[in-house]
Amino acid sequence: MFIDSSFHQFTDDEIDKAPILDGVYGLYDRSDVIYFGKGEGENGIRNRLERHKAGYEGTCTQKATSFNYETCFNPSQREAELLNEYKKLYGKLPRCNDITPSYSNF
Fold first, then answer.
1. For residue 31, which of 55, 4, 7 has the smallest C-alpha distance?
2. Of 8, 21, 31, 69, which sits most exposed with the smallest number of CB within 10 A?
3. pTM, full prediction
4. What confidence score (pLDDT) does residue 106 get?
């Protein structure tokens, strides 16, 4: 199951409300998933979202319009589940994950 939480606009004000905890997040262009990622330790969910918004993770994710997230104890495993589920449904990864070399094994 994809991330089942409310959506937030991909703005600095909304990102500032995201938790500084371990977990996963989805980035969206309107209603289309464009990226699933994880935040762990010092790079918790909020920090990772800030990096995407600032363009440090590339221009693909910087163009997101909304995001959602869930906290969890094993973000790496949950991220892999999200990517595998998406690929099973659509035959490919979300467009911004697809250009990230570290996800080429999915």
1. 7
2. 31
3. 0.91
4. 39
As a whole number of angstroms, the distance between CA 29 and CA 5 comes to: 16
Q: What is the DSSP letter of 44?
A: -
How far, CA to CA in Å, does 63 sit from each of 36, 41, 84, 90?
A: 14, 25, 23, 22
Reading the block at residue 74, the tokens are 């094993």
Tokens coding 63:
């163009």
Highest CATH level, class, for 8-94: alpha beta
Reported residue count of the chain is 106
Q: Which residue positions in the chain have pLDDT lower than 70?
A: 100-106
Distance CA 59, CA 42 (A): 23
CB atoms under 10 Å from CB of 41, counted, come to 9
DSSP string of 22-68, one letter each residue:
SEEEEEEETTEEEEEEEEBTTB-HHHHHHHHHHTTT-HHHHT--EEE
- Side chain identity at residue 106, one-letter code: F
Q: Is 92 helix (H, G, I), strand (E, B) or coil?
A: coil
